[in-house]
Amino acid sequence: MKRRDMLIKTLAAGALLTIPKPLQIFANERKNVVLTEVSGAGNPLRFPPVFTNGGNMTLAETTEQVWPGQDTQLVTINGSYPGPSVVIDKGQTFTANVINNLNEVITTHWHGVSAPANMDGHPRDAINPGSSFTYTFPVINRGGTYFYHAHADMLTAKQVYRGFAGFFIVRDPAENYNLPSGAYDVPLCIQDRRIADIPNFTYNPGSPEQTWGYLGDTVLVNGTPDAYFEVSKTLYRFRLLNGSNSRVYRIAFSDNRSFSIIGTDGGLKDAPVTATQFNLAPGERVEILVDFSGNTIGSNVTLRSLAYTFGGTLPYKQGIALDIIRFDVTNNNSSGGIIPAAFSPITYYNSSEVVETRQFDLTMSGSHPMHKINGFTFDINRIDWTTRLNSLEKWRIRNLTADYHPMHTHEAQWQVLSRNNSTNLPPSDKGWKDTVNLSPGETVEVLVKFTDHKGLYLFHCHNLEHEDDGMMLNFEIIDPIGIEQIGTEVPRSFELHQNYPNPFNPSTKIKFDIAERVADNASLKIFDIRGRQVAELYNGKISAGSYEAEWKPNFMPSGTYFAKLTAGNFTKTIKLILTK
Ligand code: C2O
Ligand code: CU
Ligand code: CU
């Protein structure tokens, strides 16, 4: 069959089905396409529709023809798999009314996007079947390639596998580097699926797969099996998202060409870096510039995952060679895009300013092996640690298992400090990262500062089977200053800030914490019930850290007093009860 006939056939079929039309914002300049016979068949790359900001996102079980001529039952959003692409400018308010027409609970998490805690899709904020929830928040992230996906407790892997994911692309109008745009700026959501699961995107992992992850044997790009994309002899920007449950890809081209890595999870790097391959673990995004100008019309090149050695004896394996998408060079148009020498500089954190170091050991143990972080599996009601706003922290993550663990934090972008004690990092580690893969035995240190929201967030493995197995912890971001009476019970509940006074006599100790950015001048004063200052325990210069002060009221009468901590623009007050 001539390619043109094949195209017409595919398109005609597509019109009958509910497969979404190409995304106009990314593919609006495909005029003058000269159809040329090229090798290989396949399906033209699909693009999900662009989400209309403020509109509905309706989750439903739908039948679509993912493979032409074959009905597949899966989860769609507004009838589309993958879900519609959010494309939004930095500074705008994102709003989506998520409607749950599935028969189980859902939440939607905006991966890599900074959102208030109650908008972050935490599994405790489940949306019941038949209900809806409006997510709305201002987009404050850097321009970049983010995504959204299911995050309900123990249902994430299944729901993502069955189709619950989509792009969340933030554009920053201030970033103007003459990168390829329009039809030359192409998002590629890479997901492996099992031929054996067709036609129903069945998700039914056996117990070894719950341990290692649910791997497929074929790759879909934007929901397109055997995808091809027609390109011009020019420079393209590809935004690669690994939306797979557990597969780690070693991305390269079939002709081993080099390309420029320009972006990581949190947007553009400080400068493009030339590479021929990189690893892309679940949850990670990498943006590349690829130049097809050296190709002849009629030729093609395939983006693929290279084979690599990885242990395990499952029928579905990590490390097998897989074709991802074929690029057919069909015409001479120019994108007008360039490879800039540099982007705007990234201010790298200074590790000497770290005020808190945390260690996370990733383990797998037990007779039914459970994935654990510091010996814990996920408890939706337990807060595993608190972290202060605007405090620079170092997280040292050690992988003590024989599997990959792409570790992910909500609510901030990390900077990788070291991998296996080396600060000589691969280009895909350098830049802003919210997901960092650890190979067996690896140790990675990241620096992190939460600057935007308080509340409950998650830290977890983005191998979705591991996540559902409990490889996830809750942390709470709290005020940059903290004060508590020593010896008081601070309940480990969601209402962490309550402090229950512990009646004392003759003296009491008060612990207070100062985060880095407010560390300058601080005061700790005691007031009586009528607001009169009765003691000053500290007043002066202070550096970030934890301190203890003691109040001996001596001749003060019994009653209620208040200890007030002030630092920078922050104040916090606790109640003290003196009983004589
Ligand atoms: Cu993309 Cu908590 O995950
Ligand atoms: Cu996330
Ligand atoms: Cu893991």
Structural class: mainly beta
Radius of gyration: 26 Å
Distinct small-molecule ligands in the complex: CU-O-CU linkage, copper (II) ion
Structure summary, number of beta strands: 39
Notes on the protein architecture:
The chain is mainly β. The protein folds into 4 domains: 3-46 and 177-331, Immunoglobulin-like, CATH 2.60.40.420; 56-171, Cupredoxins -  blue copper proteins (Immunoglobulin-like); 351-478, Immunoglobulin-like (Sandwich); 494-578, Macroglobulin (MG2) domain (Immunoglobulin-like, Sandwich). The chain is built from 4 helices and 39 strands. Strands 12-11-10-14-19-16-17 form a 7-stranded mixed sheet, with no helix packed on it. It has a 6-stranded mixed sheet with strand order 1-13-21-20-15-18, with no helix packed on it. Strand 35 and strand 36 (533-541) form a beta hairpin. It is elongated. It binds CU-O-CU linkage and copper (II) ion (CU) (2 copies).
Please give the structural blueprint.
Layout: H1 3-16, E1 43-44, E2 56-67, E3 70-77, E4 86-89, E5 93-100, E6 108-111, E7 132-138, E8 144-150, H2 156-161, E9 165-171, E10 185-193, H3 207-212, E11 218-221, E12 224-225, E13 227-232, E14 235-242, E15 249-253, E16 259-264, E17 267-275, E18 277-280, E19 285-291, E20 300-305, E21 322-331, E22 356-365, E23 370-373, E24 385-388, E25 393-399, E26 405-409, E27 414-419, E28 432-433, E29 435-438, E30 443-448, E31 455-461, H4 464-468, E32 472-478, E33 481-485, E34 508-514, E35 521-528, E36 533-541, E37 545-551, E38 559-567, E39 570-578
Parallel strand pairs: 1-13, 2-5, 4-9, 10-14, 13-21, 22-25, 24-32
Antiparallel strand pairs: 2-3, 5-7, 6-8, 8-9, 10-11, 11-12, 14-19, 15-18, 15-20, 16-17, 16-19, 20-21, 22-23, 25-30, 26-29, 26-31, 27-28, 27-30, 31-32, 33-34, 34-37, 35-36, 35-38, 38-39
